[in-house]
Specification:
Layout: E1 2-6, E2 15-19, E3 29-38, H1 42-45, E4 65-73, E5 85-88, H2 101-104, E6 119-123, E7 127-129, H3 136-140, H4 142-156, E8 164-168, H5 172-183, E9 187-192, H6 195-203, E10 208-211, H7 218-221, E11 232-237, H8 244-250, E12 251-259, H9 273-277, E13 281-284, H10 290-303, E14 309-314, H11 318-326, E15 333-337
Parallel strand pairs: 8-9, 8-11, 9-10, 11-12, 12-13, 14-15
Antiparallel strand pairs: 1-2, 3-4, 3-6, 3-15, 4-5, 5-7
Length: about 350
């Protein structure tokens, strides 16, 4: 079967189309024929061994998100049957409850082999069945970006009708966060450096927008939006080093900053005073568990929510897809067709 794998040494230059034997499912395992995959920011980091030892060992099949059809099951499998359409979960060993070291060590696409293969063989516990209304392309976008947004908005943010939510950017996580926040009745502000993308966010339901390229102090600019509350109830923090100090100024007393991205850097210089004096909650968010995925799917089906699809590439064009993912001009998820 075809696979893309990082072989011999780390680096995108060593990510190559190759062949492996088709796997066979053992007890409790499921064989999935992959149909579509979707790219995330981490798929650019993994080939460069950007997570250190936690990235995994070579050879490594990359890419975490995808959708496929069950074609065979091993002895004892009860959760799925042949013919079911499924998404593998990002954390194969995190079905619910609190995270653990073991759960975080079970991520697809590094350290575990990912989905850039014609067939993948996984535990039945590490997948979810999909509602029929979603296309393969739409379903492939969900395991990382959508569940991360759901965890931020619902699981940790506990967003309610009337809450004020600020979302940074218009990438995959941000667009899902916008959709889920509106689903729960929140007033949503989106910030971006592109007026065109802000217009599209408005069309998706954003109640307010701020261009941070023309208005760098967006914390000050947002005060009128949150005047009655003294700040946002929830900020989906995707920028990192350069945006967190502004988020700390824009959050309300007792509010939550969902820490997800570090796009502008890992090291932050910020005053700790506002965190303590205003009882601000900094909540790290790393995707989520299978039960959260299933709850998200139920909510999406109830509201007929459809992900935003960007450009679709063929399997052999993975390098071109990764370059497209690297470019900041795209809107919607980048996909790979098998």
């Amino acid at each position: 079967m075809r696979v893309f794998q990082i072989q011999n040494d780390w680096g995108l230059a060593n990510l190559r189309l190759s062949e492996r034997d088709k796997p066979a499912p053992g007890p409790g395992q499921v064989l999935i024929q992959m149909r579509m995959a979707a790219l995330n920011a981490r798929d650019l980091i993994v080939p460069e061994r950007g997570y250190g030892r936690a990235t995994g060992e070579l050879p490594l099949i990359p890419v975490s998100d995808g959708v496929g059809q069950v074609v065979a099951t091993g002895p004892g499998v009860t959760r799925v049957t042949a013919g079911d359409r499924v998404c593998p979960t990002y954390f194969q060993n995190w079905t619910g409850g609190e995270p653990s070291t073991a759960a975080f060590a079970s991520a697809l696409g590094g350290p575990l082999d990912g989905v850039m293969a014609d067939y993948v063989c996984l535990s039945e516990e590490g997948m979810v069945k999909l509602p029929a209304y979603l296309t393969d392309a739409e379903a492939a976008t969900l395991p990382c970006a959508a569940l991360t947004a759901w965890s931020a908005i619902v699981t940790h943010g506990q967003t309610r009708a009337g809450d004020r939510v600020l979302i940074q950017g218009t990438g995959g996580v941000a667009l899902f966060a916008l959709a889920f926040a509106k689903m729960h009745g929140a007033h949503v502000t989106v910030i971006s450096s592109s007026d065109e993308k802000l217009e599209r966010a408005t069309a998706m339901g954003a109640d307010a927008t701020i261009n941070y390229a023309t208005t760098p102090d967006w914390a000050r600019a947002s005060r009128d939006i949150t005047a009655a509350r003294g700040g946002y109830d929830l900020i989906v923090e995707l920028g990192g080093a350069q945006t967190l100090p502004l988020s700390l100024r824009a959050i309300r007393p007792g509010g939550t900053i969902a820490m997800i991205g570090v796009l502008s850097g890992l090291t932050v210089e910020a005053s700790l005073g506002p965190i303590v004096a205003r009882q601000v909650r900094l909540q790290g968010v790393t995707v989520g568990h299978r039960q959260g995925f299933e709850a998200m799917l139920a909510a999406m089906e109830q509201h007929n929510l459809r992900p935003i699809i960007g450009t679709i590439f063929d399997f052999e064009d993975l390098h071109a897809a990764l370059q497209h993912q690297r470019d900041s001009g795209h809107f919607g998820k980048t996909l790979i067709r098998f």
